[in-house]
Amino acid sequence: MRLTLVPEPDGVLRINEVFVSVQGEGVLAGTPCTFVRVAGCNLRCAWCDSPATSWKPDGERMGLDALVEACAAGPRHVVLTGGEPLLFAPMVELGRRLRAAGHHVTYETAGTVAPPGVECDLMSLSPKLPHATPDDPVWGPRHESRRWQPDVLRALMHWPWQLKVVVRAHDPARLAEDVEHVRGMVEALGVAEHDLARVLLMPECVDPQRLSADYAALVPVCLEQGYALGPRLHIAIFGHTPGT
User: Fold this and answer.
1) Cα–Cα distance measured from residue 37 to residue 74, given in angstroms and rounded to the nearest whole number
2) CA dihedral in degrees (152, 158, 164, 166; nearest 10)?
3) Which residues, listed in sequence order, are joined to residue 147 by a DSSP beta bridge?
4) Which of 103, 141, 175, 191 could form a disulfide with 186 if both were Cys (CB 3.0 to 4.6 A apart)?
5) What is the pLDDT, as a whole number, of residue 9?
6) How confident is the model at residue 10, as a pLDDT?
7) In this predicted structure, what is the pLDDT of residue 51?
8) Rounded to whole angstroms, how far apart are CA atoms 54 and 40?
9) pLDDT digits 0-9 by tens, 30-54
């Protein structure tokens, strides 16, 4: 499904937060990064862990020059996230400008839109499973129709990629159901066997007290399927706290 990029005047973006921390998720977990989180999303996950970028978008308008300057003062690695960063044309331009300045750029995206001109060093793709669809009369159908776009995902996998899939590790029956959906996704995307470790199963969990049990539940699945265990390092260190 083709989605139109959201225009903003003079390259201005509604930014929810800009902060420096260590990457909490994916293959770069533990790496110092500047995070630029845009407000606005075309999905509404039932368990969204950044509702101020989706259900109730909030943020201040910032121009690209100010964002490039903010990133220049931080680590080499920059993470462009949201919300859905690839929904906004200025975020695409921001990625290009940051790479030209020598930054390593990661996009964290649900993989529902592949804008022209996008550039990055890591495409962190997080397609949503059915359990993410909200029980909402308006957003439920919209979300369900958009959440899984295999053609878009394959186009974005032109760049170095990882697949981060949120699963319900705390419930054995639901975890088994989610793993079946992941297997179907992997097959549909044509992920080769030697790339299975680039598929990360990440627990749906924002409670640091529960993380260890969720990780333990995922270990046998990863051993059997060849997937990697997706960390939530920021939750373990800081809890469910903005700006971390």
Assistant:
1) 15
2) 10
3) none
4) 191
5) 52
6) 60
7) 95
8) 5
9) 999 999 999 999 999 999 999 999 9
pLDDT for 1:
27
- pLDDT, tens digit, for every residue of 146-155? 999 999 999 9
| Alpha carbons 207 and 38: distance in angstroms, whole number | 24
Containing 34, the helix (H) or strand (E) segment is strand 32-38
Cα–Cα distances in angstroms (integers) from residue 96 to residues 19, 109, 120, in the given order:
20, 16, 8
Strands 122-125 and 104-109: parallel
The answer to whether 104 and 121 have CB atoms below 8 angstroms apart is yes
User: Which parts of the chain register pLDDT below 70?
Assistant: 1-10
Identify the residue whose tokens are 């878009």.
152
> Which residue matches tokens 């066997």?
193
H or E segment and range at residue 59: none
Whether 227 contacts 200, CB under 8 Å? yes
- E strands present in 44-94: 60-62, 77-81
Q: Is the dihedral of CA 214, 219, 225, 230 positive or negative?
A: positive
| Cα–Cα distance, 87 to 228 (Å, whole number) | 28
